[in-house]
Structure formats: structure tokens, C-alpha cells
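Lab notebook page, bench 4
Experiment: in silico fold of construct C2
Operator: M.H.
Input chain length: 268 residues
Purpose: comparison with the prior construct
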Amino acid sequence: MRPSGILFDLDGVLYNASQLIDGAVGAIEWVQQQGIPHLFVTNTTSRPRAVLVEKLSTFGFSVSQEDILTPAVAAAGWLRSREAGQIALFVRPATRIEFAGLACLPDHAETGASYLVVGDLGSSWDYPTLNRAFRLLHANPRAHMIALGMTRYWQTEDGVSLDVAPFVAALECAAGRKAMVFGKPQEAFFHAAAEKLRLPAAEVLMIGDDIVTDIGGAQSAGLQGALVRTGKFRPGDVEGPVKPNFVLDSIAELPRWWQGYGRFRSSA
């Protein structure tokens, strides 16, 4: 089925850390001019939407906060709908704004959490921080752990770096319970994005650089997946069990691909 709407990953698709990917601005401008329904979906938990909008603006993109769906926004909305109890946040300071109005524990607390929200802390992850998260879970066997995505790693300026998934996995192992995941590759996250576009999942194309989180997650949710050869892409990605519906050299190829739909249907 020809796609009717698009979900764009950010880092690795539009830019790499602080470096714009050639042709990305033009490709997004073309999508906007064509009136193609689209959203920017990212597992980034180190920055709130306002900061993402500002960063995109510095690159030349014209995007509003409502055009962006993040795990923090989805998780905070879910917690508000449940009138959740005390929450322990393991997210970067800038991301806390997305959880405004919720009952959040002080950073030194080791007991009292009904919910534990785990995002990307980057180099702030150390043994005391990880152990405090474990103690909060251990102190309340009924506490829920919420993972803001399950991305394994991402491409930084100095090389690949661990993302949130390895730390969530460590806590799952220690606490003996599974995390609730808000973000890619969870089906609910992709379905929420499709619903926001008011399109059936099968008519939505996810464009990303992560063969597992972006492409595999989207396909499991009934979406189509286009893998770009930028960001964290490695040639071996197309040889694994997840097979993208399409492969693009970069996002710059999107307008030509969209207009000539079908001619680029390949996996290598």
C-alpha cells in the first residue's frame, strides 16, 4: 500500500548530533509543501519538545511542538490520566518540564515511589544513581517502572553511545519485573502516532536509522518502514531478521522516492 503519512526519526535521519544531514531541510520543506501528514517521533529523553523545536530551527526546519511526539510526553500524559501517586524521575533536568504538575519525589529519595520513570541520563548514569533506582523498586514490590523508549545506543559526535535500554535491562534483572515502555519500538507508541495523523497504521511510513527500534518496531505495529543509510546505519543492518520495506541513501532522497513510488522497493 502506498504510504499516505510519514513519521520521521530525528537524530540520524535529519541530523547527526550537531551536524545537519545534507538535503534534510529541503526534504522536510517538500513534505510540508505537499501537505503530506507527518510527525517527528523520537526516543530522545534528554531534551523537552521546546528544546527540540529550537534545535531544529537552528538547522533551518520549521516545526512546532505539536509536530513532535516523545516518550516523555506520552508517559506524562498516561500518568496524569491515572492520577498517579509519587513518581521518581530518572531523566535529565531539562526533560522534567514534561512532568510538570505531577507528584515527583526529591532526587535523594530511596523509598516512596509508586512509579519510576527511566530515561536517558547519558554520563550521569553511575553506580549510586542506578542503585538508587533499584532501591526504589526494591522498597515497593508494586511500583511500576516506566521506560522512555528502549533504544540500545545512538550515534554521538565521538562515536556510538549507550542509550536507555541497557540501564532498564539492568533494573529489570535486579528487580525481577518488566518495565512498561513508552516510545519506540512499542506498538502503542506507533499506534498513537498513527492516530494523531488520523491514518490507518498500514498507510503510515516510519523513516529511521535504527533497524530494530525504528523499522522493526514500526512493522510490528503494522506500519511500513524505510531505513536510511545515515546515522547509526551499518551495512549489516539489512542482513538481519528485520527487513525494511524500503532503503534510502538519505532523507534527501525522499521527494524523488515518493514521486516515483515503487522504483525503490528494495532492501540493499
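Observations: The chain has two domains: 5-70+184-259, 75-181. The first strand starts at residue 5 and ends at 8.
Next step: discuss at group meeting.
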